[in-house]
């Protein structure tokens, strides 16, 4: 039962990482597993059995969700953009009460308020900058592009781990988002049809990016662990700022979809918002 629950948490995090404006790190906070996730990553070799048992269902759920979302997510956002966005806003807000409990009872210092404001402004600012996508990146197989993909993987993974910062939004800004999503879709189709040339082509893109993601996750996770150990309250207030900013970011990134909505859309969106909130609270227990 716990394995399936952790898989569901991993699925939510996996889907979040592929949506521009939604942060996988924020979803991990909302699911109540962020600090444990960071600990297991940074202590993978010291506490291998314990860490791997926790990470396997999370990774498995995220991988399945990523594979499925490569096909279904575009349909949902294309046909039901407002209810889908409100679902993720609900998932994010559902983790806010648990995070507020982390700072409840402690004296609020000026530094805590500054941490909240700085990180709130940082994430909102990224969304405002990221309204336009850069030129689509070249993913043809050569040494230079392999190095670039490794670097892109590191950048994306770092932003995936940090709550409130959307890795997919960063990919969108540098022009790698749509090419990589398409590469994932093509790779899965090639696997299903046993297309060897398609599989090799996909591996030429996804393997260097994947290695970069793994390296980046380990590097940033260690840094985050140190911050939580030395400045826990500042870290919690910064994360509250990131979470509070995330719904605004989602709306800013999808302003066009919120125009011309009707009563039925509003009602469905309220339901998806409530469902997301309740699911997040339940998984975070």
In terms of topology, how is this protein built?
Elements: H1 2-18, H2 24-30, H3 34-42, H4 48-79, H5 81-93, H6 96-103, H7 110-129, H8 143-161, H9 167-173, H10 177-192, H11 196-230, H12 232-253, H13 263-283
Helix pairs in contact: 1-2, 1-4, 3-4, 3-11, 4-5, 5-12, 5-13, 6-12, 7-12, 8-9, 8-11, 10-11, 11-12
Task: Describe the protein.
The chain has 285 residues and is mainly α. Helix content is 79%, strand content 0%. The protein has 13 helices and no strands. The chain starts with a helix and ends with a helix.
> How many strands appear in the DSSP assignment?
0
**N/C terminus separation:** 14 Å
Overall pLDDT score: 79
Which strand-content bin applies to the residues?
under 5%
Written as H for each helix and E for each strand, in order along the chain, the element string is: HHHHHHHHHHHHH
Helix percentage range: over 70%
| Class inferred from helices and paired strands | mainly alpha
Instruction: Please summarize the sheet with the most strands.
Output: none
Shape: globular
Contiguous uncertain segments of 5+ residues: 131-135
The total of helices stands at 13
Return Rg in Å.
Answer: 19 Å
């Amino acid at each position: 039962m716990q394995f399936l629950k952790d898989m569901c948490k991993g699925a939510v995090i996996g889907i979040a990482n592929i949506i521009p404006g939604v942060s996988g790190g924020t979803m991990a906070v909302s699911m109540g597993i962020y600090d444990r996730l960071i600990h297991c990553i940074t202590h993978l070799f010291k506490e291998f059995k314990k860490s791997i048992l926790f990470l396997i269902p999370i990774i498995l759920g995220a991988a399945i969700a990523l594979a499925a979302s490569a096909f279904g997510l575009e349909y949902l956002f294309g046909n039901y953009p407002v209810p889908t966005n409100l679902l993720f806003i609900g998932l994010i807000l559902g983790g806010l009460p648990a995070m507020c409990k982390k700072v409840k009872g402690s004296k609020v210092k000026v530094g805590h308020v500054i941490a909240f404001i700085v990180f709130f402004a940082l994430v909102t600012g990224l969304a405002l900058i990221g309204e336009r996508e850069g030129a689509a990146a070249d993913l043809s197989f050569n040494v230079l592009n392999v190095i670039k993909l490794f670097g892109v993987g590191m950048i994306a993974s770092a932003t995936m781990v940090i709550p409130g910062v959307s890795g997919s939004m960063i990919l969108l800004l540098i022009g790698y988002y749509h090419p990589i999503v398409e590469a994932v879709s093509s790779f899965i189709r090639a696997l299903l049809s046993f297309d060897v040339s398609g599989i090799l082509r996909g591996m030429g893109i996804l393997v260097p990016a994947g290695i970069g993601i793994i390296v980046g996750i380990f590097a940033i996770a260690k840094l985050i662990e140190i911050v939580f150990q030395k400045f826990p309250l500042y870290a919690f207030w910064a994360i509250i700022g990131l979470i509070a900013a995330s719904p605004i970011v989602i709306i800013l990134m999808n302003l066009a979809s919120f125009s011309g909505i009707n009563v039925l859309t509003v009602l469905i969106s309220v339901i998806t918002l409530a469902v997301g909130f309740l699911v997040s609270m339940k998984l975070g227990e």
